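Q: Is it fine to ask for two folds in a single conversation?
A: Yes, each is treated on its own. Send the first.
Q: Here.
A: Result:
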Amino acid sequence: RVTFHNPPFNIYGPNTTPQLNKVVTAIEADPHLKVVVFDRDVPHFFLTHYDFVPPLTDTTRLPPGPTGLPQLPDMLVRISKAPVVSIASIRGRASGVGSELALASDMRFASRERALLSQFEIGAGFVPGGGPMARLPRLMGRGRALEVLLTGNDIDGELAERYGYVNRALPDAELDAFVDAMARRIAGFDKQAIADIKVLVNLNSLPPNDQVGAEWAAFLRSVKRPAAQQRISQLLQMGLQTNPDVEKRLPDYTGKLGESSR
């Protein structure tokens, strides 16, 4: 079990990267591990967007990972391809990196009442960088993927299940027991058989590594543009990363940007 704990909003930043890399490396190297569950213990937030306060060079100067990709897409690809079943148990907001980590996991289960998934980046004027353009169309089809990516709106648990964003949405009171029972059932089976099945399913479902890497390059290009920098600055002034209401209702606030110019 990997529990995200970076209060108050579970924001992902360059300081988080080495911690996650240690986790992914341990998942790959453990000869006995069969299943890993990703969850959180910060109220209202599963895992959220990238940290906009540190300079971008704190991210770009990180060396490539073992796949040759930059650090974040490298780790997401490795999670998908590890000989271990990964399950995202989503309660609270999974925006940006949180959504991308969930998409990289083998299975996703969401609280019907308390899960919110989104790729909010369009509202801040830049392109997502962790693979959602490569992964979402494979899960939900082109039209629904474009709806998620081009509106930046929240997708609640029930709609996420209907669209194929998650495997199932369950009543919040039942989520933990359901995920735990599934994880334990899978963990009772043969590790080599699990790994072999994953390899063959991956051949028919995962995007090539270079498609995921291309999104990171597009993210870096887009986030440097003056229009994106202006919108990010506006969001920070509104209270992004400091005001709980902004983090809880991020699509509402991104929708207010540029209203005067319409």
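Q: Second one now.
A: Result:
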Amino acid sequence: MIRKILFRADGNSITGLGHLYRLFAVVDMLKDHYTFVFVTRNDSTVEAIPSNFNVSLIPNNVSISNEAEWLAENFDASTYVMIADGYQFNSSYQRQIKQLEFKLVYIDDLVESHMYADIVINHAPDIEAEAFLSETYTKFGLGTKYALLRQSFLTQAKKSIKAGTLDSLFVCFGGADKYDLSLKVAIAAVNIDQIREIHIVLGGAYDKQEIYDFKEKHSKKLNLYNGLSETDLVAVMNLCNFAVAPTSTIFYELCAIKMPILGGYYVKNQEGIYNSMSSKNVLYKAGDFTKYTIRDFEDKLNGLLSEPNLLESIQNQKNFFDGKSDIRILGLINSLNISFREAVRTDLELTYEWSNDELVRKNSFNSEQISFTGHSAWFEKKMVDKNSLFLIAEVNDIPAGVVRYEVENQISIVGVSIQKEFRGQGLATDFLLKSAELYFSNYDKPIFAYIKKKNTASVKAFEKAGYYLVEEKLIMNEISFVYKLDANHGI
């Protein structure tokens, strides 16, 4: 069954727009692979939602306690995966959504509620799955490997480090900036001679006038922006060579650009990222922004400008953000939509193409290219072989790989391959786990896998799927590992 996605978040001038913007990044990662609907409440700042989104508004008379029923009435749970970002989606809410048979992905900040979601994503560093209370089925995407960055920033993250004189300042404090920290930084920065330009991005819910009056007096140095597109935001950031920002999504985006950052926090969910990134020398420490005066900002900016070891923090940014989190997050969503079918004769050409893939041949013990005649003869035998479980793995009804079990006298031997468009998503482990359930429903013989020692990706996939190392041996002149899975182990 082909699935779609419900993206669910709220935001306005009172609550801020952080959850909306963060979920926009996830939309950006998945929009080319899944059709979707963006669901938000009537009192959200709908103008902040991109105009090309298919938006569904939850009526004001629908409370959070009966929202799950409203969603089930308006969207087929068997068709949609729901991705939710917001503190209101607590344990009770998640349990209701799961009872209505939606697949659920929850984007977490606080590590507080019991998780009933199928997948939990928390992109703060240093978070471990053991920190959560959760159901046995819950999977986790944790750490900056799963950074919720929009595509333009993922592209920037792959670029090399730039260096130069620090004279152009970027500032952004999010949607509402209720403490008006933007104005305080503006006043402080104008007083510092080394700073030639100040670029301040104001959020969609910012509604204060004083900073605009201040700009009129300092128009040569101070630039204000609001309503920037993703492309324009990247362009403004690239005009700058250091920044002031909270440790929220904007901080991760600046790390992708790579520059010294005076980082701090002003709400609880930013504090964990701040503490971790401070300990890893990714930012110049500011602490609690809510306590800052204009003089505090001036002192901290002068301190950053005179700091001799800023290049190390920029290198650390690059180490934490590799620009591949979109592929990993796509893999998490795809893992919810895996199905298997037995291979049929019409799969001949498809499996022939996959068998001759460069990486497949490299990791096989026989690395020679396979002829179509030879493959056809082998394939025909497999179609009638009762001792072969030949499975085509599909992701959202698209053929994505092969898992094959060859049943011998006392054991079975497994092989797995992933079609190249689905590699890098971590799906091999899911293919092995889910197909083993099918295998052990028909057989009780243990499964063995033979893997070249240098094929580290396969080794990791099998270990994550519960296989354990039996021995190391030489196979066809290749140093190899032998892994085993028993019927009562890892399933």
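Q: Anything structural to flag on that second result?
A: Two points. The CA atoms of residues 451 and 481 lie 5 Å apart. The chain has three domains: 4-147, 152-320, 337-485.
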